[in-house]
Write a structure and sequence with these properties.
heterodimer; A: mainly beta; 7-stranded mixed β-sheet; 4-stranded antiparallel β-sheet; B: mainly beta; 6-stranded mixed β-sheet; 5-stranded antiparallel β-sheet; 0% helix; 58% strand; globular
């Protein structure tokens, strides 16, 4: 039982490049989330999903897109990366109120 | 003004001390109150959560919620070096959607041997 896994762990992008972050969970959770964590800002919700095929915007959705084609996977895409998107990205999943987090992806945009 | 305010610290105490971590909030609709622990370069993990006002104890940890003052606390008794981490408070507003957590900024705690 791996819980929540994230791929990749680290990535460096140049401004304007695109990439996709993959989140996978093996707990059969309906709910999945993407957060970003920046110094002094805590965790901020980017997008979330309440089930396969559904997505919704969180607090800071601009510049990101998501897809939930399979229940166990939640993808976060950056179409045209900007330096302001340098951050640590965490995926989480939940059945009810307890959210289980992945280990994070450290993204640097130069 | 942020919905949830948390002193970022850092907070440094000697081993064995009682630690008090606190958050204030402005949205009276919050109903579930949680504390997450995050070790360096790891994802957050849930320590404990409480519903509405009152206390909840789990080993050396006690969570306290005072809804009248919009104030929550986490107490750590007999603190250990392994408790050194960042502690994040988080809250859920069931009206907005059952699963949307709002986090405080996190308090970085160091327990010195």
């Amino acid at each position: 039982n791996a819980g929540v896994t994230q791929t990749p762990k680290f990535r460096v992008l140049k401004t304007g490049q695109s990439m996709t972050l993959l989140c996978a969970q093996d707990m059969n959770h309906e709910y999945m989330y993407w957060y970003r964590q920046d110094p002094g800002m805590g965790l901020r919700l980017i997008h979330y999903s309440v089930g396969e095929g559904t997505t919704a915007k969180g607090e800071v959705p601009d510049g990101y897109n998501v897809s939930r084609l399979k229940k166990q996977n939640f993808l976060l895409g950056l179409e045209s990366a900007a330096p302001s998107q340098t951050s640590v990205y965490f995926c989480a999943s939940s059945y009810l109120y307890e959210q289980y987090f992945g280990p994070g992806t450290r993204l640097t945009v130069t | 003004q942020k919905e949830v305010e948390q002193d970022p610290g850092p907070l440094s105490v000697p081993e064995g001390a009682i630690v008090s971590l606190n958050c204030t909030y402005s949205n009276s609709a919050f109903q579930y109150f949680m504390w997450y622990r995050q070790y360096s370069r790891k994802g957050p993990e849930l320590l404990m959560y409480t519903y509405s006002s009152g206390n909840k104890e789990d080993g050396r940890f006690t969570a306290q919620v005072d809804k009248s003052s919009k104030y929550i606390s986490l107490f750590i008794r007999d603190s250990q070096p392994s408790d050194s981490a960042t502690y994040l408070c988080a809250m859920i507003n069931l009206i907005q959607g059952a699963q949307k957590l709002v986090f405080g900024q996190g308090t970085r705690l160091t327990i010195n041997p």
